[in-house]
Design a protein that fits this description.
- This protein is an alpha/beta fold and 251 residues long.
- It folds into two domains: 2-195, UDP N-Acetylglucosamine Acyltransferase, domain 1 (3 Solenoid); 199-241, no CATH class.
- It is 37% helix and 14% strand.
- The protein has helices at 2-23, 32-38, 40-56, 62-74, 198-219, 231-241; strands spanning 77-78, 83-84, 89-91, 97-98, 103-104, 109-111, 115-117, 129-130, 135-136, 141-143, 147-148, 153-154, 159-160, 169-171, 176-178.
- The protein has a six-stranded mixed beta sheet with strand order 3-6-9-12-14-15. Strands 1-4-7-10-13 form a five-stranded parallel beta sheet.
- A hairpin with a 4-residue loop joins strand 14 and strand 15 (176-178).
- Helix 1 (2-23) runs antiparallel to helix 3 and helix 3 (40-56) packs antiparallel against helix 4 (62-74).
- The longest helix is centred in the N-terminal third of the chain and has 22 residues, at 2-23.
- It is elongated, with a radius of gyration of 25 Å.
């Protein structure tokens, strides 16, 4: 049994190193030995593989000690009981937290500052279940026993508290699915800089509607034409007319 366990962990670690080489541009051309020695995300996952295996066979204390040492070394905290599939890659990784009952599928990529956490002090299953081929952007928080479907993408700084459909992209706080250029999102190459911003889209729609209403009222003779000066200039002129100086808050 011990031999089988060592073989399984070794196979998982080799796949994790390959995942780093495939998904991290900085690892292109780097040898497996170099990635294994110098990539903190790989170190954290390696320590977790060993700690999880030791916990599975009932070794006391040592799994928690390994998890503590890995957190001290890498800034990545993974509970030894968390279940993680093959090809798991943590890019950069500082500030990543993966809770006790979290479950992660195969070929998942997460970035720094991601939390797979619980809510409150409930017992039992209290952390997210993440499907395969999922990408989770920097600073995203996935909270509670939610399920993230296969192939989903979670935008940077998104707060997810509800289930995420497969092959969808989720942004916002609270997070909700959006479409990216009408294409089904797959793979770990999300263009995080150009994700949709539904809040900005709604504000643009409201601004356009207000402008349309102002034009209609102007045509009816109810209001003068709106000022074309920038809002910042208008605020400065208003303060000057009231005799006020510059705002102590700046701007």
């Amino acid at each position: 049994m011990a031999v089988q366990l060592v073989r399984r962990v070794s196979s998982e670690i080799r796949r994790d190193v390959q995942a780093a080489q495939e998904r991290d541009p900085a690892a292109k051309g780097a040898s497996q030995a170099l990635v294994l020695l110098t990539w903190p995300g790989v170190h954290a996952v390696l320590a977790h593989r060993v700690a999880h295996a030791l916990r599975a066979v009932g070794v006391p204390a040592l799994p928690q000690i390994l998890a503590f040492l890995a957190r001290s070394r890498t800034g990545i905290e993974i509970h030894p009981a968390a279940q993680i599939g093959q090809g798991f890659f943590i890019d950069h990784g500082s500030g990543v937290v993966i809770g006790e009952t979290a479950e992660i599928g195969d070929n998942v990529t997460i970035y720094q500052g991601v939390t797979l956490g619980g809510t409150g002090f409930q017992t039992g299953k209290r952390h997210p279940t993440v499907g395969s081929n999922v990408v989770i952007g920097s600073g995203a928080k996935l909270l509670g026993p939610i399920t993230v479907g296969d192939g989903a993408k979670i935008g940077a700084n998104t707060v997810v508290i509800h289930d995420v459909p497969a092959n969808s992209t989720v942004v916002g706080n609270p997070g909700h699915p959006v479409r990216v250029e009408g294409k089904r999102p797959t793979g770990p190459d999300a263009d995080w800089a150009h994700l949709p911003d539904p809040v900005a889209d709604a504000m643009d729609a409201l601004s356009a509607r207000i402008a349309q209403l102002e034009r209609q009222i102007e045509e009816l003779g109810g209001l003068p034409a709106p000022s074309s000066e920038p809002a910042s200039v208008a605020r400065a002129n208003l303060r000057a007319s009231r005799g006020g100086g510059p705002s102590p808050a700046g701007g």
